[in-house]
């Protein structure tokens, strides 16, 4: 009986150990499967993060490149404009001031303007710079005797630095031949030609 008891005990123990080993193997297998799932999910998440980071880096690079190209184009356009303005300024700098303070040039311009019969009959007034009155008044009175006797009047204003305005004596309109007006006109006319010469 003891022997049966020992045999029964040994069988129970063996069954228990086998059952325990089988359970342990099952637990280990489940743990390994869960670990594999966790590892796979972590790898997928890492791949997604890496892909998103790569996409964002590419977008940032593309945006930076586009911004740099735009800035370069703007800087080049500004540089071209600055060079054009510099060349125009050098061309016109002082070129208008001298003729517009010369009594002979002003007299010729006024003769050309008043040579139209309709203009002379409307009694024109030429407004000249006050600062040049001493040099211009007597020279113009001797050069423009015919025009002055036909109704042209000369007056002087501190508002004009060089050149002159001409208008009907009664008002209505004014034609301006000042340095600033002619400078703006010639710059506008020169701009396309200067840009073409410089950059084409």
Describe the protein in words.
This protein has 200 residues and is α+β, with helices and mostly antiparallel strands. It contains seven helices and four strands, in the order ααααβααβββα. Helix 1 packs across helix 7 and helix 3 packs across helix 5 (133-143). The model has no long low-confidence stretch (mean pLDDT 78).
Structural class: alpha+beta
Spans of at least 5 consecutive residues whose pLDDT stays below 50 are none
Tell me, briefly, the overall form: rod-shaped
Tell how many strands the DSSP assignment holds. Answer: 4
Oligomer: single chain
- Give the CATH class of the largest domain: Alpha Beta
Please indicate the percent range of residues in DSSP E strands (runs of 2 or more). Answer: 5-15%
Rg value: 49 Å
> What string, H for helix and E for strand, traces the elements in order?
HHHHEHHEEEH
CATH homologous superfamily placement of the largest domain: ATP synthase, E subunit, C-terminal
Mean pLDDT: 78
Count of alpha/pi helices: 7
Return the CATH topology of the largest domain: hypothetical protein PF0899 fold
Largest sheet geometry: 4 strands, mixed
